[in-house]
Design brief:
Beta-Lactamase, alpha+beta, 573 residues, flat, 5-stranded antiparallel β-sheet, 15 strands, Alpha-Beta Plaits
């Protein structure tokens, strides 16, 4: 059928270009500007976060390392029995030698009177310069006695051997009977923190370390603050302190030039404040504006060249075609409207192709619906079966078939995950190991079926006592069981261990081959602070040695071995 010529789209092209060519270019420029701004903010926030994390890690490591050193010295068994100058002097000297960050180290009586100190001579060469000095009024001395453990002070003004703003670490020393022997202390120079801070900050960035009382411990020189000065004295630091922790925000004198600030807090009250310059606002807009100009110039020239050859009737047939096609549903079975046959000859191939494919689309849509419904049902059914099979397989692979507790494989996976959780939170974690006394003799006397029944009974007692308290409870092998508790307190763990032992004793399972006449349980436990330097295998080793000590001491009892005691045993070995 011949088609009547309705005109050419060439004459109408100029009008389309004139109306729509400039708008996409403008939108593209705005989108690029917003994207540049977003990337700039993300980059600044990432740099701030990395710098703050590095400063926080350095501060945490520096304080924990020196605090633990004083705590280990205070736990020295020799000092528990002999807290005198002859015993203290070489140990204080060794402490300063191993930890050069300590300016001085001293030992004080329970009333605060200094007994001895290192170095032995002051800056002028005078010996015994500590005579008559008392630290009883110092906050770090009182906090160490009040808390019964090592304590790191905030920054304070020194009045002793080293003058200036210092940080002190103190730990109490107790005799074997619990009587207070005195206090071991050492003094740190914040200048080391200042040097570390200078290495962490970039040339245009600033860092500040704040103690629990809100005083400056170390700060970049560009902040213009002094050590020991209250942090709110700086307007920039005051703006950061007003923000929520771990939240980056803008601080500065004016909207066109601001700084990005970030505050991170440590569990013991120390804070790390980070500032980095935010780029001038035109940094994100100038490249996009330049690109926009480059786009608009050729587009404008193209429109000017196309205008003489464009036609004024472009919009009407195109709009009619768009409206009719928008209303046309190829899957509904309707024929093409008659008005589509009146379109310009340039658009007629589109109409012919659409008419030819309409019938095919309708057939394919019907076939597709049937196939999709069948496949979706099959996929859904197989997916449910696969999930059930995978869940059952995972559960079987990690469960002990005899007792129903977690097996060794599941125990190792859960223990590693729990250890990482304890390190991230910085809390204490406890390992509790137990062993059925004389179990081989029980098997030899009553037979393996009776031994299996005994294992199930003991596992039931463990589950009854520890299931709601232990994060991990497993049969680690043979007649051995193990549990991990987080968070853990020594007294609570000891009470749970005694409850487990009593629960097995209450069952009164006959054991003729045991000196106790019934099935009993020996237990050992150890509690450790999960610091970044700590290791899980050290905790498990201490718990195993505690169990061995319980068995060696007569079985049917609970024993504890601290990690520090384990380290002492290694040194002695």
């Amino acid at each position: 059928m011949p088609h009547r010529r309705q005109g050419s789209l060439a004459r109408r092209a100029a009008q389309v270009l004139l109306a729509f060519a400039l708008l996409p270019a403008l939108l593209l420029g705005l989108a690029l500007s917003a994207w540049y701004e977003h990337v700039d903010q993300q980059h600044a926030a990432a740099m701030l976060s990395d710098m703050a994390d590095g400063a926080e890690l350095a501060l945490r490591s520096y304080l924990a390392r020196h605090r633990d050193a004083v705590a280990v010295l205070a736990a020295d068994p020799v000092l528990r029995g002999q807290f005198d100058t002859a015993t203290l002097q070489p140990r204080l000297r060794l402490l300063r030698y191993m930890y050069p960050g300590f300016l001085t180290a001293f030992a004080a009586a329970p009333d605060g009177r200094v007994l001895t100190a290192e170095p032995a001579l002051d800056a002028s060469g005078k010996p015994d310069y500590w005579r008559g000095v008392s630290v009883g009024d110092r906050e770090y001395f009182r906090q160490a006695l009040r808390g019964g453990r090592a304590y790191v002070s905030g920054i304070f003004q020194s009045r002793g051997y080293e003058q200036g703003m210092l940080i002190a670490v103190a730990a109490p020393v107790y005799a074997a009977d619990g009587r207070l022997q005195g206090v071991i202390g050492a003094v740190l120079d914040p200048g080391q923190l200042q040097a570390d801070l200078g290495r962490l900050a970039g040339p245009s960035d600033t860092l500040a370390l704040i103690d629990p009382a809100g005083r400056i411990v170390a700060a970049s020189p560009s902040l213009g603050v002094r050590r020991g000065q209250p942090a709110p004295a700086s307007p920039l630091l005051r703006g950061i302190l007003a923000m929520a922790p771990d939240h980056a925000g803008d601080v500065g004198p004016a909207w066109w030039w601001t700084q990005r600030g970030l505050r991170e807090t440590l569990p013991d009250g120390w804070q790390v404040l980070t500032l980095g310059p935010r780029q001038f606002f035109a940094h994100a807009w100038l490249p996009s504006l330049g690109l926009l100009v480059l786009l608009l110039v050729p587009v404008t020239l193209l429109v000017r060249l196309a205008l003489p050859r464009a036609t004024r009737r472009l919009m009407r047939p195109v709009r009619v075609l768009a409206d009719e096609l928008a209303r046309f549903d190829p899957g509904g079975g309707a024929e093409l409207p008659a008005s589509l046959r009146q379109v310009p000859y340039e658009l007629r191939p589109i109409v012919d192709a659409l008419e030819a494919h309409a019938a095919l689309i309708q057939a394919l849509l019907a076939q597709r619906e049937d196939v999709l419904a069948e496949r979706e049902h099959e996929i859904e059914q197989r997916t449910r079966e696969l999930r059930r099979a995978v869940a059952a397989l995972n559960e079987t692979a990690r469960t002990d078939g005899l007792t129903g507790l977690t097996n060794y494989r599941g125990w190792r996976e859960q223990a590693e995950n729990l250890w990482h959780e304890a390190q991230e939170s910085g809390r204490e974690i406890a390992a509790l190991t137990c062993d059925i006394d004389h179990f081989k003799a029980y098997n030899d006397h009553y037979g393996h079926p009776a031994g299996d029944a005994c294992l199930r009974r003991v596992a039931g007692a463990l589950r009854q006592v520890l299931d709601s308290r232990a994060r991990v409870l497993a049969r680690s092998g043979g007649e051995e069981f193990i549990a991990l508790l987080l968070p853990a307190q020594r007294r609570r763990v000891e009470a749970l261990a005694e409850s487990v032992r009593s629960a097995v004793a209450v069952m009164a399972l006959e054991h003729a081959a045991s000196p106790h006449g019934q099935v009993t349980l020996s237990l050992g436990f150890s509690v450790m602070l999960a610091t970044p330097e700590a290791r899980l295998d050290v905790l498990l080793r201490a718990a195993d040695l505690a169990l061995y000590r319980a068995k060696r001491n007569g079985r049917n009892q609970v024993c504890e071995l601290s990690v520090s005691a384990l380290q002492k045993l290694r040194v002695e070995e």
